[in-house]
Amino acid sequence: MSRLASGVVLVTAQEPPLDPDDPGAPRGEDVGMTATAFMSVSLDPPLVLIGLREGSRMDDLLDEQPVWAVSVLSGSQRHIAGRFAMKGRVSDRLLFADVPHRRGEVSGAPLVGGALATLECRTEQRVPAGDHTLVIGRVLTATAPNTDDGPLTYFRGRYRHLD
């Protein structure tokens, strides 16, 4: 499968507040994960699919947090992909510190500035599949800013930039 080129996305979500009944409670931590198993499933209704390693932090979070976001990374955002793909990494809070982003209107999750496209989604279905969970999400918001940059791709174990 390493010979199948894939686009690269950053999946993000916000942990629920520690006390959801207290409107003044601090919001939860931002969590991010680089993924290449992402695809469009349906145009009507607009659905996408993301593959998550079973038991990963993002899999556990999206099991309890129904809204999440996706930023489709551009070729110039390879450093972001590498940062959020590291295993045993430091706190996500530090990872987001110098990544330009805005908060999604619906999800509150970080949406990466300069991304080729951004989506906010609500989980419709979770499907166990081997050692992964396939999460199907309904697209709630989508943006595709004008950019001259090409996509970031992953092929044969390396990030690549298509012009």
Tell me what the structure shows.
The chain is mainly β and about 160 residues long. It has a single domain, classed as Roll (Pnp Oxidase, Chain A). Helix content is about 15%, strand content about 45%. The chain is built from three helices and twelve strands; from the N terminus they run βββββαβααββββββ. Strand 11 (about 150-155) and strand 12 form a beta hairpin. The radius of gyration is 15 Å and the shape is globular. The model has no long low-confidence stretch (mean pLDDT about 90).
Number of helices: 3
Mean pLDDT: 90
- The H-level CATH homologous superfamily, spelled out, is Electron Transport, Fmn-binding Protein, Chain A
Number of domains: 1
**CATH architectural group:** Roll
User: What is the topology, as strand order, of the major beta sheet?
Assistant: 3-2-6-9-10-5-4
> Which sequence of SSEs, written as H and E, runs from N to C?
EEEEEHEHHEEEEEE
CATH fold-type name:
Pnp Oxidase, Chain A
Into which percentage range does the β-strand content fall? Answer: 35-45%
User: What's the CATH first level?
Assistant: Mainly Beta
The first-to-last residue Cα distance is: 23 Å
